[in-house]
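As noted in the main text, all predictions were made from sequence alone. Below is one such record, for Gluconate 2-dehydrogenase subunit 3 family protein.
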Amino acid sequence: MSYPPPPFLQSDHVSSRTRSVLLKRMEQEQGQRQNLSPEAFHLLDIICDDILPQQSLLGDIRLNLAVMIDQFLGGPGDGWRFAELPIDLEAWEKGLLSMDVYARALFSQNYADLASEQRGAVLDRAFDGSLSEQTAAPLSPAQMVLWSGDLRNGIVAAFLAHPVSQDRMGISSSMTGGDSRIQGFSSHSLTEKEDFEPANERRFLDQFQQNNE
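Prediction:
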C-alpha cells in the first residue's frame, strides 16, 4: 500500500537531511525481502502483527514492518549483540525458525497455523524462558529469551521510526530544526503543542497518564 508523505515533512522545522532519512524509510518499507529466508520472513510478518497490531493506531494503513526489519538486518546494525547469540541476521533467521519448532512442540502445528491465543502463548514462553528444550530448534530456550528482547525492540523501533507512525501518533521529535537554524522546542509539556507541530492527537498520552496515576 502506498501513501503520500505526511505534511510535517515539508515543515521548515525539519532539516533536509532529516527529511531525506525519513523519506528513505518510507521507500524501504515499500520494498521487498532481501536478507531473511522466505520461511523466516513469513513468520516475522505474522509475529509483527501479533506483537504490535497497527489498526488501532494507524487505521487503514498497515506498515510493512517485516520489510523494514529485514533491510535493517542487511546493514551494519547497531554495533552490539549478546555474546550468547550469533550475528544479527543469523540470530533473527534462527530465532524465527525456532518459533516453528517450539510451536510444534507445544501445539503440534506450525506457528502460522495456530490460533491467535496459541501464538501468544508461544511468544510468552519465549519471552519468559519457559520453553522446553528442543534439539531441532536452532536457538535454545535461554537464547530465545535474549533474542525475543531484540525481536520486540526491533518491531517497536521500526514502527516508531516510520514518519507515518510519527504523524498519526502526534510524535514531533523529528522537528528539532531546519537547515538555516535549529529552532528547537520552547515547551517541555507532553500535553501542550507548539504552533508548528502537527495537530494530530498524541496517541501515547492516554497510556502514559494511566501509568502515572
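The two ends are 39 Å apart (CA to CA). The first helix runs from residue 16 to 29. These features were considered when defining construct boundaries for the mutagenesis experiments described in Section 2.9.
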